[in-house]
Amino acid sequence: MLICPQCHSENPNRNNFCQKCGNSLTHQSCPDCDTSVLLSEATCPNCGAVTGKVLYLLLYQKLSDGDESIKYPELYEDCVDIGQRYRLLKRNDLEKEQGDWQVMGDHTADGRYFLAKVVDCQPLQPSILKILLSQHNEFLARLPELQSSNDDPTWQTLALPELAFPYFKLRDLYPTIPDVYDAWCEENNEYVLLADRQSWPHLIELLEQEAIPPLQLIFWLNQMVILWQSLADLHCLQSLLMPTNIYIDEDQNLAIQQLFPDVDPPPSLSQLGQQWQDWLTKTQEHPLESLIAVLEEVGQGKIAAIAEFKSRLEELGQQLNAPATLADEVFPVFETEMLEDDGPPSTPQSTLPDANLADGAEIDDASTAVLQMQLISLSDSGYTDRGKQRPHNEDYFGLTTFVETQRNNQGKSVQAKGIYVVCDGMGGHSAGEVASHMAVNTLQAFFNEHWQAQFPSANVIAEGILLANEVIYDTNQKNASSGSGRMGTTLVMALVQNTKVAIAHVGDSRIYRVTRKGGLEQLTVDHEVGQQAIQNGLDPKIAYSRPDAYQLTQALGPHDSQYVQPDIRFLEIEEDTLLLLCSDGISDNDLLEANWESKLLPLLSSSQDIDRGLRKLMEFSNEYNGHDNLTGVLIRLKVRPKIPIDVW
User: In this structure, what DSSP letter does residue 395 have?
Assistant: First the structure.
C-alpha cells in the first residue's frame, strides 16, 4: 500500500501515480531547483539539496564473551535491513552531513552503540512497526504505565528491541521526545529508527548567535527541568547534558534527538545547573543576574529538589511577566453561563469543569504555566460534504479571520481575531439548508458589528445567538410552518481573540480541543434527551436505551427564544491548541475518540498543512460516517511565552 503524499489516499504498490489525484508515487520535485528526483534518493542529483526521507539510526550490538573488537553491522547490498528498505548513507551522500557508522562512546559491559543515517527507499509505505502497532491499540495505551518491557507479553510477541522501550514509554512527550519510525531485532543487533532533527538549530547555537530574551531562557530551562524528572525514571538523564543532542523545533520548544542511557553514577541536578551556567556564558546578551543566582544554587547543590527548582523558575517568570496593567484588562468570568429561563423546557448546564481552572490547576505539570503566553500564529480551515447517502447538504459553516503581524528588532508579534460557526440544519425539503445558512450569516453580521476592541461578554454572545434564533423562528411563523416542516439548526461557535476563546453551542454539534498535554477533550455536552437524562442522574446505558435518546432538547428556529438556552464557556490558551468545530456527521460513532492521535494530533505541528489535514479527516469521516452531512472547521493556535520589550 502506498500513501499519496499529496491527498493521503491509499494506492496499490504497483501504481506509479495516485489513482485519486494523479500525483507521482515514484518521484518528487526538488524544493530548491524543481528537478524531478526519485523518492528513494537522499539528495537531488542536480543541486545536492536533501530531498529524501533521511532517518537517524540507533543500533545496539551485544558483545560476545571476551570479544571487544569493533564489528560493523552486516549490510544487505547497501541497506541495513534484510528487506532492503533503509539504505545506509555514505559520507559523500549528504552535503555537510556525516554518513557511515559512528561508534557512540565506550562500549558497556554487554554491548556497543552505533549511530548512522539512512534514507527510506519506500517512504510512501507505512513501516512494518506502524502496521504491527495499528493492530495492537490496547498495547499502545498500556505502554506509558509499564515499568519495563517484560511487564507485557505483547512486547515479546512483536519482537521489539529493548532499545526502543524508553521512546515508547515517553511517547506522550512527542515532539520533545522523537517517535520511533521503525524498530526491529536481528540476531545480536537491535535497530531503532528516529526522525532526523538536524534541520532544527541546536539550543547552544541559538544561545551563541542570537539575543535570547530572559523569559525565553526561563521557558526552555523549565521545559528541561520537567523533562529531567521524566528521564530520571528511565535512567537517561545524560541526554540533557549533551549540547549536540538538544534542539529547538519550529515552534520554539525544546526537543532532543535521542535518549542516552546513564552510566553509574547517574548525573545529578547540580550538573544540569552547572551546564546551564556554562551555556549562558556564551549568550549574546548578558544573562539575567537573578537567573544566574538560581543556577549557581542548583550547581552548588543548595537546590537539590526538582519542585524547588521549578518554584524558583516560576518566581522569576512572574517577576518578568507582562506589566501589571494587563491584569486589569476586562475579561469575562471563566464560567459556563446560561440565560435566565422564563419558560420550559430547560436543559441542564454543562457539567464540564471550568476551562481556565482545569488548564491551569497543575502548575507543576505544565512547563508553560510559569509564563504568560502570547499568540504567534493562527491558522484555520473549513470543509463540508453532503456525505454518501444524503441527497443534499443541510450543513453550513462560516469563518472570518483577521490577523495582523508586526515585526521589529524584538521579533514578531501577532494580533488575531476569528469568528467560527458550524450549523447542522433540519426541516422538510431544503428548509435545513436555509436555516443553517441564515444562522451563520446572522451571527457573522452580528459580531462584525458588536465586536470591536473588547472581547464579547457572555451576554453579548447570547444576544447574538438569540437573534439568530429569532430570524429563523420569524421565518417559520411567516411561512406558517408546523411540526417537522419547521426549519431549525444546531449551532457551535468559537470566538478567538489572541489567546482568549469563547465557545457556545445549541444542539448536538460539537467542539473538541486537542493539546499535547491534555489529548482530545470534548468541550460541549449534546443538547439531547439522553444526555439530559444522564445529567439528571440516570445511568448512561439506561438513558440511551430510550427510543428518543438522540432527540434534540433545543435548536435554533423551531421555538421562540425563551426555549433557547445556549451553553457559553470561556478558555485561555496556555499551550499549542487545535479546536475542531463539527457536525455529528464527523463526531458520530466515536470516530474522533478512536482516531484523534493519527488524524488530529500531528496537525499541532506548524510543519503540517492544516488544510490538507482537515481534508484527510473529512475523507476518512465520509468512509466511516458517510450516512450524514459532514462539516468541520479546524483552528490551530500556536503560543509562546510573552516577552515584554522592557525585559530585553
Answer: E
